[in-house]
Amino acid sequence: MPPRVTLSFDNGPTPVTAQVLDVLAGRGLRASFFVVGERLRRPGARALAERAAREGHRIGNHSLTHATPLGVADDPAEVEREIDGMQALLGDLVPGEKFFRPFGGGGRIDRNLLGQHALERLVRGAHTCVLWSSVPRDWENPGGWPEVCLADLATRPWSVVVLHDLPTGAMDRLPAFLDALDARGIEVVHELPDDCVPLRLGRPTASFAALPVAG
Ligand SMILES: [Zn+2]
Questions:
Q1: pLDDT 10s digits, 103-119
Q2: What is the mean pLDDT of residues 15-30?
Q3: What is d(CA 135, CA 10) in angstroms, rounded to the nearest whole number?
Q4: Alpha-carbon span 63 to 69, nearest angstrom
Q5: Separation of alpha carbons 45 and 67, rounded Å
Q6: What's the gap in Å between 37 CA and the centre of ligand 1?
């Protein structure tokens, strides 16, 4: 069976979000957008997130400031601001299940992502924690990331890819990337595989034991 892929776009919304939404809409694809509070507060940004939600995309919490990873700043007040404060800012953009994606550095899954206080908040707040399995580093390779990603997708049956709806130029190659997925029979799905979701609605899944937590 050809591999499957779930697409995610982090760190927006920015004007590039509109470009990404146009591409996805043209192909009838749905993705996840993990948005940052400080970006959501910029002029015009909320309308982009509302459009994404209206068009069937998943809107997730990617922290209020995306400044210090919660595994580094494992402080209850900071955790509350970054997770709960951002969730409040999202408001009715997320009417149901609350999706949180932590951040670390360079797309690595390590103990920078979450500390004990953050984990406790996610569990008590019944959040679904969404990690990833493929990071083609589009921000530092805006022209070549699709080829890097295609090679990586071949290594597992179902990948969650992290891209960025940021003005790096990388999203200019999104149509070519999606064409290549089509050509290889790789299906783009909206669901999230358990191996990238250590918590669903605050409850541990089979991959919870592999979640690195600081402290
Ligand atoms: Zn991020």
A1: 998 899 999 999 999 99
A2: 98
A3: 11
A4: 9
A5: 19
A6: 11
